[in-house]
Design goal:
The complex is a heterodimer of chains A (467) and B (127).
Chain A lengths: L5 E5 L5 H10 L3 E6 L5 H6 L1 H21 L13 H25 L3 E4 L1 E4 L4 E5 L5 E5 L2 E4 L3 E2 L13 E2 L1 H4 L8 E5 L3 H13 L2 E5 L11 H13 L3 E3 L4 E7 L2 E6 L4 E4 L1 E4 L4 E2 L6 H4 L22 E3 L10 H15 L13 E3 L5 E5 L2 H6 L4 E7 L4 H5 L6 E7 L5 E7 L3 H13 L4 H6 L9 H9 L13
Parallel strand pairs in A: 1-2, 1-7, 2-3, 7-18, 9-16, 10-11, 10-16, 11-12
Antiparallel strand pairs in A: 4-5, 5-6, 8-17, 13-14, 14-15, 19-20, 20-23, 21-22, 22-23
Chain B lengths: L6 E2 L4 E6 L2 E6 L1 H7 L2 E5 L6 E2 L4 E7 L3 E5 L4 E6 L2 H4 L3 H4 L8 E5 L11 H11 L1
Antiparallel strand pairs in B: 1-2, 2-3, 3-9, 4-6, 5-8, 6-7, 8-9
The chains are: A alpha/beta (467), B alpha+beta (127).
């Protein structure tokens, strides 16, 4: 590695803070600039807060089920949203504090304010009071993330019309809510609010929920949404709406009218590439305002890097972190490249979704010859024991080589379970490799073994298929 | 003994014909084979179904299975009680566990279905 290098990172989200710590570990002198909160959207207003709340809803629902199985309670189980939010804030604060502690341990200098590139080696930071700090380094990493929706047709007022940020700080459960957008965020919030007891209507422009997920997964999720009595308006947009004292009155493109206390806008995040001095320095941005980067995360200006949402590659926290490590490695003279082939991801709906690699539909569109194996949660002793029987494991493999091309799980702990598939894909393993590995009993992981065996029709706990 | 006034399909659905309408459900054999039913995805009122087309899906602790319409017709009524009490399919498959009422498009199709006696013989032959 080269001699000690100074590095400035703008933005302390899951991309920026991971890059900062890694750079310090490798001997760099790091300054990190953050305008709002260490941990970024993910930790403060995204992944962690929503999972904290969804977990409580899940726990409450499971406890209600368990009441029929002999678990007794003094009274009915309910949700106190004010206390749930307080608990969420405690979790967030503790994690934010944890990152600040790591910064101190690694001698990372933290500067509060908005960072802006003055040259390709200089950053000007303006704090809330207008105070200015000048910083200089041999390399700069831009990790400014993406912003909440700012669509002209849906101005966020924070009361009736809200974004995910406000949705995670509501202290009263809305009786009814319209969710605009049936993507990952929209689906997670549909589960959260329906669990809390709100009447939920999801309005999605596309003909299905979660357009990039596997059809099997989507079908099971759609059925679960029906069980939750979530109203789905697919192939539909909001034609017109107004905010009245009664709430939101919306007319859908189908002609249907929906009245709700609140409307959550879950579409239209924008990359935060404005006001960073990119034009001055010559950093190129694309048509979606994303910062253009190469495989080392370097922008069109040598020594200036960009990672995370602002690069428009992926809106996943863990991809931002991986990009951060790659950018640091390159900046410090030991180049690595980003590989986007194996990226596991979780969707924290109820039930949860875990995915990696191609879907069956994507494989077919690409003309790949594939074999598919499936196994239901209901066939697992562990799933029956814990009373969580809804869900499916699915493996997609190359027909000839049997190499795993994709894995899709919907059901409890899917986002944790998916990593076995991701590791298998990362190392080019086949379905036989997974099927032949002994899986501990009783566990949900056995579902992966059974799905792998099912590719050849050899799953043990599966009804015999008629031939 | 299967109820005598019903007609049966080989996929284990039954229908009860009254005039031009037919109430349908799943047989005792079907509910037993399914195990505890946890959810039924009912058709929409107004939907038109061909004979042997998919009517809905039923999810049990064992499997998710398709229910087929034994006859052609349009859905005029569905048993909404099943939305909150899918266990009625197990408890009373020929009574409160009915699934839907169809307006028959082609009443002659009914004659193609099995009588109770034939269905019982069919079950024995499958055993």
């Amino acid at each position: 590695m080269s001699s000690l290098k100074r590095l400035i990172i703008i933005g302390a989200g899951p991309g920026g803070y991971v890059a900062a710590i890694r750079a310090a570990q490798l001997g760099a002198q790091v300054t990190i600039v953050e305008a709002q909160a260490v941990g970024g959207v993910c930790l403060n207003w995204g992944c962690i807060p929503s999972k904290t709340l969804l977990h409580l809803v899940d726990l409450g629902e499971r406890a209600r089920h368990a009441a029929a199985w002999g678990l007794t309670f003094e009274g009915p189980i309910g949700f106190d949203l004010k206390r749930m939010i307080a608990r969420k804030n405690e979790v967030v604060q503790s994690l934010v504090k944890g990152i600040s502690t790591l910064f101190k341990q690694w001698n990372i200098q933290q500067v509060t304010g908005r960072g802006e590139l003055v040259t390709d080696r200089q950053v000007r930071v303006t704090d809330a009071q207008g105070g200015i700090t000048h910083l200089e380094a041999e390399a700069i990493i831009v990790a400014t993330g993406s912003s909440w929706p700012q669509l002209p047709q849906f101005p966020i007022d924070g009361e009736r019309v809200i974004s995910s940020k406000e949705a995670l700080d509501l202290t009263e459960i809305p009786r009814s809510i319209i969710i605009v957008g049936g993507g990952v965020e929209g689906c997670e919030f549909a589960c959260l609010f329906s669990g809390l007891g709100s009447q939920v209507t999801v309005v999605e422009m596309m003909p299905r929920l979660l357009p990039t997920e596997d059809d099997d997964v989507m079908a099971i999720l759609t059925r679960e949404f029906k069980k939750r009595k979530i109203q789905l308006a697919l192939n539909t947009t909001i034609h017109d709406w107004q905010s009245t004292t009664e709430g939101i009155q919306a007319t859908l493109s189908s002609g249907q009218s929906v009245v709700a206390d609140t409307m959550l806008i879950s579409v239209g995040r924008r990359m935060n590439s404005r006001g960073l001095g990119l034009e001055t320095v010559g950093v190129k941005t694309g048509s979606r305002e994303e910062i253009v980067v190469d495989e080392h995360m370097e922008t069109t200006v040598p020594g200036v890097y960009a990672i995370g949402d602002v690069t428009g590659k992926s809106m996943l926290a863990h991809v931002a972190s991986a990009q951060g490590k790659v950018a640091v490695a390159h900046a410090l003279g030991t180049p690595q490249s980003m590989n986007y082939d194996v990226i596991p991801a979780g969707i924290f709906t109820l039930p949860e979704i875990g995915r990696v690699g191609v879907t069956e539909q994507q494989a077919n569109e690409r003309g790949l010859q594939i074999s598919v194996g499936r196994f239901r949660y209901g066939g697992l002793g562990k799933a029956q024991a814990v009373g969580e029987i809804t869900g499916q494991f699915k493996i997609i493999a190359d027909k000839q080589s049997q190499k795993i091309l994709g894995m899709h799980i919907i059901g409890p702990h899917a986002a944790d379970l998916i990593h076995e598939g991701a590791l298998a894909m990362q190392h080019g393993l086949t379905v036989t490799d997974v099927a032949d590995m002994i899986h501990a009993h009783p566990t949900l992981s056995e579902g992966l073994m059974e799905a792998a065996e099912d590719v050849d029709g050899l799953a043990i706990h599966q009804a015999r298929k008629r031939t | 003994m299967e109820p005598q006034d019903l007609r049966y399909h080989k996929e284990h659905e039954w229908i009860r014909v009254e005039g031009t309408k037919a109430t349908l459900g799943i047989s005792n054999f079907a509910q037993d084979a399914l195990g505890d039913v946890v959810f039924i995805d009912l058709p929409d009122v107004g939907a038109t179904l061909a004979a042997e087309a998919e009517l809905g899906e039923v999810e049990s602790t064992k499997a998710t299975s398709t229910i087929y319409s034994p006859v052609t017709g349009s859905v005029v009524q569905i048993n909404q009680e099943l939305e909150d009490h899918p266990e009625l399919l197990n408890q009373d498959p020929y009574g409160r566990g009915w699934i839907a009422v169809l307006e028959l498009s082609n009443p002659a199709e009914v004659d193609l279905l099995m009588t109770a006696e034939q269905y019982e013989a069919f079950l024995t032959s499958q055993a």
